[in-house]
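Lab channel / #folding
Pinned by the channel admin:
"Please post every new chain as: sequence first, then the C-alpha cells as a reply. Keep commentary short and put observations after the output so the thread stays searchable."

First post following the new format, from NK:
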Amino acid sequence: MIHYWKHICLLCLFFGNGYHTVWSQDIEPKQEVNIDDLGNVSDEFQENFFEALKQKAITNYDKAIEALKKCIEIDPKPDFLYLELGKNYIELKQFHNAEDNLVKVLDAKPNNRFVLELLFETYFQQRKYKESVTVVEKLVAFNPLFKEQLANLYFLEKRYEDALIVLDELDDEYGTDQYRNRLRKKISSKISNPNSQINRLEQKIKEKPEVEQNYLNLIYLYSKDNQKEKAFETAKLLLKKRPKSEFLHLALYKFYLEENNIEQAISSMKIALKSNKIDIESKYKVINDFLPFLDKNPQYESQLTSIITILSNDQNNGKVFTELGHYYYKKDKKEQALNFYERGIKSNATDFVLLKRILLLQLDLKRYEKAEVGSKLALEMYPAQPIFYLTNGVALIYLEKATEAIEILTIGIDYVIDNLKMESDFYQQISEAYSNLGDTTKALEYQQKANQLQKKS
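Reply from TO:
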C-alpha cells in the first residue's frame, strides 16, 4: 500500500507527536490482471506477462520489468503493461520511470482513480507539487477527503488563500479538528496581509453565528495582525454565545493578563488546563505564560497549587511537568523541582540535560537508591558520558557498595576529555571508595591525584 499522506506530514512538519490518519487514502492494488483480461495475445506474450507478475510477487522487480519490456516488444498497445511497469518502478523508487509509464496509462484512462493515486505518489516523491495538485484536484471528485491532501499541497505551492478555502470547506462539511486547526495556523503565519482572511471569517460569522471555530480563527487573525481590541471584543462576543467554550479560554487568559484582571486570567487558565479537548502543547503554552507572570507577581504563587492539582490528573503532561520543574529549580526549591522533573522525564526518557539534572538532585537530596537505578539506565542510553559513571559511582559509595563503585568509576574516567575538574572528582570518589574498604594506601594515592588536578584547574 502507498501511504503518500505520510510524506506530506513529514515534509510540512505539521505534527508534533503523531500522524493524522483519519484522512489517509490507502491504495489497494486491486487491479491485477488475470488471463481473461489479456485478450487475444500470443503464448510468448502470455508467458512473459505472467512471469512478470510472478517476479513482482517475490519482489524481484528488476526481473519483472525485464519480462514486461519483452511483452511490449511483442505488442506495445495494452495499457496494463505500462501500469505494471509503473508499479514495479515505484517499488524500486525509480519515480521518474514510474511517472513516464503511468502518464501513458492515464492518456488511455484519464479518470481512473487507481492510476491517479499512483501518479500522485510518483509526483509527490519527486517533489513535483504543481503536478501533484493537478492530480489531487481530480481525486477530490472520487472522495472529498482528498481535500486535506490538497490543502497541504496548496501550502507547499504557496497558494495560501486556496489552502484556507479548502480548509473552510472541510470544516463546514466535517466539523473542525486539531490537525486542520494547526494547519490553518501554519498557513496563516505565512500570509503577510490577512485582510482577505479576516473579511471572509467576518462574513462567515454573519452567515453562521453559531459556529465556534470561525470566532476562534478570527481571534487568532486579529491577534496576529496586532488588532488586540478587536480580538478581545470577538472573544467576549463568543463568550456570550458559547459560555461553555473551553478553547476560547486559550485566548481569554492572555487578554485578562494584559488588562491586569488576574482573577479572571487564572480562572481561564484553569478551564483550559482542565479541558480534555485541549492538546498538551497548548497547555504547555499556558504554563509557559503563567510561570513568568508569577516571577513578577509572586503574591499569586498560591494559585499554582490548584493548577498543579488539575495537571496531576493527567500523567501525559510530561512537557508541562518539566516546565514546572524548571520553575522550582530556578527558585532553589529542590524537592519540588525533583518531583516534577521525575514526572516529566517519563515522556522524554532520553533527554540528556534533564537526566543529568535529575541524578544530581537525587544525590543532593540523598535519594541514593533512585540515583543508582537512574544512572544505570542513563548509561545504557549514553555509554560514553562520564557524568553518568560519576553519579553512579557516588550513589554506590553511599549505598556501601565500594567495590562496585571503584569498578564503574575506573571505567568512566577514561571518557573524561579536557575536563580537569571532572577528572579530579573521579579521583576524589575513587579515594573515598578505597577509604571505605579500609585500603588507606590506595585512598591516599587517589586523593593526591585529585589534589594535583585541583591545583591545575
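NK: DSSP finds 25 helices and no strands in the chain.
TO: also worth noting, The chain has a mean pLDDT of 87.
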